[in-house]
Amino acid sequence: MKKLLMTSALLLAANAAAQEGHHGTGTPDHVMDHDSLLTFLNIDQLEVREDDSQAFNGDLWFGGDRDKLWLKGTLEREEGETENAELQVLYSRAVAPYWDLQMGLRHDFKLENGPSKNWGVIGLQGLAPYFFEVDSALFVGEDGDIGFSVGAEYELLFTQRLILSPEIELDFYGQNDRENELGTGLSDMEAGLRLRYEFTRQFAPYIGVHRERKFGRAADFAREDGHETRETTWVIGLKAWF
Amino acid sequence: MNKKHKSSIALPQMSRRTFVTGMAAGAALLGATGSRALSSDHRPATSPQTLRGNNFDLNIGYTSVNFTGRSRTATTVNGSLPAPVLRWREGQRVTLNVNNSLAHDSSIHWHGIILPTGQDGVPGLSFNGIRPGETFQYQFDLNQSGTYWYHSHSGFQEQTGVYGAIVIDPAGPDPVEYDRDYVVLLSDWSDTAPDAVYGKLKNESHYYNFRRRTVGDLWSDIREKGVRRTFREREMWNEMRMSDTDISDVTGYTYTYLMNGQTPDANWTALFKRGEKVRLRFINAAAMSIFDVRIPGLKMKVVATDGQNIEPVSVDEFRIGVAETYDVVVEPEADTAYTLFAQTIDRSGFARGTLTPELGLSAAVPAMDYAPVLGHRDMGMAHDMGGMDHGGMGGMDHSKMDHGQHQMGGMDHSQHGGMDHSKMDHSQHQMGGMDHSQHGGMDHSKMDHSQHQMSGMDHSQHGGMAQGASGQYSLHGGRPELGGMQGAWFTEKLGRAGFGSNSPIVHLPSEYRYTVDMRAEQPMNGLRDPGIGLRDHMQRYGRRVLNYGDIRNLTPTIDKREPTRELQLHLTGNMERYVWGMDGIKFMEAEPLMLKYGERIRITLVNDTMMTHPIHLHGMWSELETEEPDYIPRKHTILVQPGSKISYLVTADAYGRWAYHCHLLYHMPGMFREVRVV
């Protein structure tokens, strides 16, 4: 897995070098001669949920127009305990006008109820027709496990600043994972409806509703453990970027 | 200020600053520059200082300014924003010692001046730039006269104030009669640092667009047209993932628009005496803002553009692209004040000044016009995009919408603004009061859209357009020995000099990349298009709007040779990613574009984006093909309308390395080429 990470880092470096351009060597620095390498931290969701739980969802990207290093993080806490913490480190390359191909590593952090786990990731992220923001990825675990996730988000503008954003994410697995309550086929769904007000583009508090549901074997595992298979909570949070 | 917008689209997010712009700004600048003393009636308090002679010492440094109520640091020349007016005389040699007091490299480019490449001031191409603390001496001969300007060509310093006017008085008598003249330099100021503005656009390209479609717009469309038709009309935009209100990348949300460095409230003021001929030298020195200029109550006689004298044209309004200049003569006949009104192309703000017989007088400031919405013609009828189902667009009368596409030359496209209102798409709805008889003899209404696609365009309407099979181009245009950039070069069946291109539209493979989100398949000729938002101003307001087809050079064309080859260069972009290029290639990826010294070529620019791009070629004139071969106007910057094409001739009469680029500052990192004449 470290190999994968190394590979993505190398790829990024190689690409950066390849983008040096035809005017670079020996001539003075020309402002238009190189990609401006930018870094942005996007906090998509930083929220408190009804049942005394908190969640963070966001990413950080660094790079130029075509090649980027992309970090994606998710953190969920419930009653003071971390329920879920994962980080993806991805090399992202623009492959089509609206699509980025992303490859790299995902690390699920060690939590109370389970071991840590590494996954290889290959994903496609972009903007689908009708303005759906789509993020999909195939995960291959170090133990051979397979997972697939697809998410889509939409924006409805009530005004230029009051924006309703429905979203949905579906997780599929190729195998059962009793410990983590994951089942073959469609395992989990998360859906949300968040209404934000953009005081600025970069600072937008929101309220919303968040729903989680388990299906099939995953639902069975949850029931066996005495956990809910469906959960709907109110949320209040912040979307921001820097 | 209570503004009544005619548009049904409200502009609720109009920046407060646009209207309540800092009253203190003028005063702050006064202190900062020390050059605004009331020296004479002719130069009221708010004009930038004018420097005359042949030797100039210019210092690029930092100056504190306040345009919005907040203090910011500008980069300025001699402490002045805009920089001092440089008044030269044709035939003289000027020497300019430019000292750089900034912490970064800097440079000055003399925009529109024909000079040796080493004097052109583009770091990396003409010289090494001016290092901090160093002085560079420019020296060149002036073989031209007219209105020009100068600005930094380093980083984004243009945005923060390094720009000023150049006026070159002719060696002989001036063909333009005037009693007094004023420079009217338009620009845009943001309190946000330009690098940050650029970054915001990269992370969220619609950052500054506060006119995006809302649920309310959707609801009123559905009420008006029904679900089915609304869905169909929106289909293309949805498929293409584009916004029809994406007119300006950076808007009045962050910009305060300036006239000679004054906010609208500070109200730059110029004096006249009744009966005088006043020559106004408009210069668009903005970073990102295209302006529509008018003076309510006064006809403007356009006498020059880009420094070159033209056959006078009387208009009520003209669009000035970034980096263009227009000289107009007005003759106020009343002892009243007039407002110089320059609204931005997206109507998100305006610059304003006053022409008055008496200090202290001012005239009403008009409301801004409706905000334009992009239509199909602005996309060059991109048939291949996103698997559009054309059959499903039955609700729209495509045959009529296409109308403009079928008349490549000689027709005033401004007449085409509205057409069939009942069937028009959203964008065209705002255009009222059309006289349908304008379309006489061009009734395509029976032509259905599917036939259109199969047969291509009706070539008989093209006015002698010789169609070669598409793809009859070569990558080096018969000059492979020059090396350099590959492009779509045509060498055969070229249209006659002055009449524009006959060549088919070709999209190179490099346009099928992540850098390109749209390709104009059937771009119309932009020559007679006054541009988005102006096309119906005659019908709506009775205003005569200038278009490029109106421009006729005052003196005969110098180089009357036919072009020997033609480069078709496509302006490309990806708005979502905020990436710009030519032929889908960014500057840093591109080889130089090679020209042979002495040759005369045609460049046809095809705009594969929905934005209006001002394209500037350094070192050589861009001779706009206006279908008047004997009086071809010479320009240095040419506006290319969205989804349209335009052609001009270039005589490669200047050796060396030259910049060739879109003058919208944040497009420059990609939409830029080196032109090398060997």
TrEMBL record, chain A:
Protein name as annotated: Copper resistance protein B
Keywords assigned: Signal
InterPro entries: Cu-R_B_prcur
Top-level taxon of origin: Bacteria
Signal peptide, first to last residue: 1-18
From TrEMBL, chain B:
Coiled-coil residues: none
PROSITE patterns linked to this entry: TAT
Record keywords, A-Z: Copper, Metal-binding, Oxidoreductase
SUPFAM superfamilies: Cupredoxins
Bias kind Basic and acidic residues: ranges: 413-428, 436-451
Residue ranges constituting the Plastocyanin-like domain according to the UniProt record: 60-170, 237-343, 562-676
Region of interest (Disordered), ranges: 402-469
Matches recorded under CDD domains: CuRO_2_CopA (cd13874), CuRO_3_CopA (cd13896)
InterPro entries associated with the record: Cu-oxidase-like_N (IPR011707), Cu-oxidase_2nd (IPR001117), Cu-oxidase_C (IPR011706), Cu-oxidase_fam (IPR045087), Cu-R_CopA (IPR006376), Cupredoxin (IPR008972), CuRO_2_CopA (IPR034282), CuRO_3_CopA (IPR034279)
Transmembrane regions listed in the UniProt entry: none
PANTHER family: FI03373P-RELATED, MULTI-COPPER OXIDASE
NCBIfam families: copper_res_A (TIGR01480)
Protein name: Copper resistance system multicopper oxidase
Species annotation: Microbulbifer taiwanensis
